[in-house]
Protein: TetR family transcriptional regulator
Organism: Thermogemmatispora argillosa
Amino acid sequence: MRDATISEQSQATRPGLRERKKRLLQEAIEQAALTLFRQRGYEQTAIQDIAEAVMISPRTFFRYFPSKEEVLLGPTRAVMQAGLAYLRALPVAQAREARAALQGALLHIADLYQQQRRSFLLRYQIARQVPSVAAFYLYALLEAETAFCDLLQERGGETLDRAQLRLLVATHIATLRVTLEQWLDGGAQADLQTLLKSHLKMLE
């Protein structure tokens, strides 16, 4: 009876067949797009080309990605959201220590980049050659900056000055960006967390 209960719980926590199929198709679209971007160039690759490579319609493509930019830089948004989730999960007492909490979140983001270094390196190599994509990347970081600032103020209450908080977050996000670029320019060979820690010390 107990084994049956464990089995039922396991099945309940696993994604359903439909969700697994959706995830596999999303990954297939992403891989096809990255391959075409690398082979033909980002601007020379149309959404129709990506759809044909996966044998789907452009309409189906748009069910998974709103644009080509999102295929390329969506993971950047995802890791930033993971950093926000890290911050959101901190106990209130820790979250009130804004600098330490923010640095912890950025180091968590660095760890996620390290785990997916090949994927991010490929995306970076493609994106840095296209000005429009670079602008999209900077906008994603600006969005994250605002979100971190709002969340830190929410968790810290009235004890945090908004102007000081904005400056704190802006300098830390800029440090993360410069560190990521240095890491990726070096082929993502270094330990990213160690590199980021050394750069964050410069802000003290």
